[in-house]
Amino acid sequence: MNPFRSIKPSSLAFDALLALAILILGFVAKVEIDADRVAQFTREPDTLNTFLIILMAAPLALRRVAPIPVFFVILGAWMVDRALDYPESPASFALAIAFYTVGSEVSRRTSLRIGGVISLVLVVFTGFGVVTLESVTVASLFTTLITTLTPL
What pTM did the predictor assign? Predict the structure, then answer.
């Protein structure tokens, strides 16, 4: 069975452009970040950070073809990026888009299971960040909850 067959070419083109836009925003933010902002984080942008930005953005091109695998690739890249305390990037928006895609492309029951469990995991993950990293604030807990549950 060909997973591309049931998806309109215009939707695939939109998803490719969306992935490219998120990727460009991530790279621009990485290049344009000022020294004061970088100082708030444990790590400065480097090659691994570039790779993680690519892993957060590029899979969006296939988000309707394979919503759950794409979601988990983006989630994994985002969690590694945040755990290593790189400066925040617009590429993080890819996670909210992936949450939305799971909510819109997968059955309600499956999307609520995945979304609910992963939202809880991310709130705990962010809570751990609040305790261990200066760059993660209590407001981040609310942001994490809103950006994970709202798209679903």
Answer: 0.89
